[in-house]
Design brief:
The structure is a single chain. The protein has helices spanning 10-21, 43-52, 75-89, 112-122, 124-140, 161-182, 200-203, 217-232, 237-249, 261-272, 275-286; strands spanning 2-4, 25-30, 54-57, 64-69, 94-97, 103-104, 143-148, 186-192, 205-206, 256-258. The chain is globular and about 60 Å long. It has 11 helices and 10 strands. Helices cover 50% and strands 15% of the residues. The chain has a single domain (2-286), classed as Rossmann fold (3-Layer(aba) Sandwich), CATH 3.40.50. The longest helix is centred in the middle third of the chain and has 22 residues, at 161-182. Strand 1 (2-4), helix 1 and strand 2 form a beta-alpha-beta unit. The strands form 2 sheets. Strands 3-4-2-1-5-7-8-10 form an 8-stranded mixed beta sheet, sandwiched between helices. A two-stranded parallel sheet has the order 6-9. By secondary structure, the chain is an alpha/beta fold. The protein binds NADP nicotinamide-adenine-dinucleotide phosphate. The site of NADP nicotinamide-adenine-dinucleotide phosphate (NAP) has 33 residues, from helix 1 and helix 7. NADP nicotinamide-adenine-dinucleotide phosphate binds next to helix 1 and helix 7.
């Protein structure tokens, strides 16, 4: 039983498809799925709702994908989604906390409201879903939480500082969570994709003040177009999905798994090279 947030596109959708093919019962979430089922609705109503929202099934493996409504910024929708899955299945074995988006702009240009929105989705959004799922995993005595971080959650990228910071915060959360939940039989880890070809690029929010009047405008636009090009020429989301599947298969997943050889090397070099040298490379690439 797997719950994947943000399964309507990109990495979440690719992961849902692969896990269905591998025979898992996948409950994916999206804000676009409509419907409202009260916690005290009958189990028939809940089951019918879920049945109507099965969007794919694999006869050979027995797996399926059922989509349910969830906005990571709205606690009530998270409670409803988890209640629906628990009512039907009685358990959640794996959570892939994947929903997220990005904001771009210089630190000076991104307003604190815009920065808060970024944290509300990428950090607090994951936190809300994890908190809702944990009591069920504790009761079961097992569970696996996989949080979708990013290489930018280890190396901070100019003009994506708030995105990077939200993923750094997620990394800190999961590192501590691992220790706290280990004695309940629950595992937690991070998957760190690099540039990946998804809808993320087109959906990126640009800070309101990052316009021609900004003193950062020329450097920002050059950096943004490099980011966009790298993402659109990046790995297929299927590659990230395979990494998630490999994590699921591991008895003891490590705290973090970077996706792809290039990024594994990148993060290894960050560990062993002097910080000044790493900063120089990032500066050359994005500033
Ligand atoms: N693409 C990359 O280069 C890259 C690299 C590293 C890490 N990542 C991370 O990978 C994860 C998935 O991104 P992606 O590249 O697959 O992007 P994507 O194609 O834009 O998909 C994002 C998914 O998140 C969902 N989502 C967005 N805001 C949400 C909200 N407030 N509540 C609930 N769901 C929300 C979307 O669902 P609905 O709009 O249907 O609700 C969609 O299914 C993100 O955490 C991202 O930070 C991406």
């Amino acid at each position: 039983m797997i719950l994947i947030t943000g399964a309507s596109a990109g990495i979440g959708r690719a992961t849902a498809n692969l896990l269905m093919e591998k025979g898992f019962c996948v409950y994916g979430t999206s804000r676009k799925v409509k419907g409202n089922i009260a916690p005290d609705a009958s189990s028939d109503d809940k089951n019918n709702f879920l049945k109507e929202n099965i969007i794919a099934s694999d006869k050979k493996s027995g797996g399926f994908i059922c989509m349910i409504p969830l906005d990571v910024t709205e606690e009530a929708t998270i409670a409803m989604a988890v209640d629906l899955v628990i009512s039907k299945e009685g358990r959640i074995d794996i959570l892939v906390s994947n929903a997220g988006n990005g904001i771009a702009g210089s630190i000076e240009d991104v307003s604190t409201e815009e920065a808060s929105m970024q944290f509300d989705i990428n950090f607090f959004g994951s936190l809300r879903v994890i908190k809702e799922v944990l009591p069920h995993m504790r009761r079961q005595g097992n569970g696996l939480i996989i949080a979708m971080s990013s290489v930018a959650g280890v190396i901070s990228i100019p003009y994506q500082a708030h995105y990077s910071a939200s993923k750094f915060a997620l990394e800190g959360l999961i590192e501590a969570l691992r220790h706290e939940v280990a004695s309940f039989g629950i595992k937690a880890c991070l998957v760190e994709p690099g540039d990946t070809r998804t809808e993320f690029t087109g959906r990126r929010t640009i800070a309101n003040a990052a316009d021609e009047n900004s003193p950062y405008y020329d450097r920002f636009t050059a950096s943004l177009s490099r980011m966009e090009k790298d993402e659109q020429n990046g790995a297929s989301p299927d590659v990230v999905a395979r990494t998630v599947y490999n994590v699921i298969k591991r008895k003891n997943p490590p705290v973090r798994v970077a996706v792809g050889f290039q990024y594994k090397l990148f993060l290894f070099l960050k560990k062993i090279l002097p910080s000044r040298l790493c900063a120089k490379v990032v500066g050359m690439l994005y500033s």
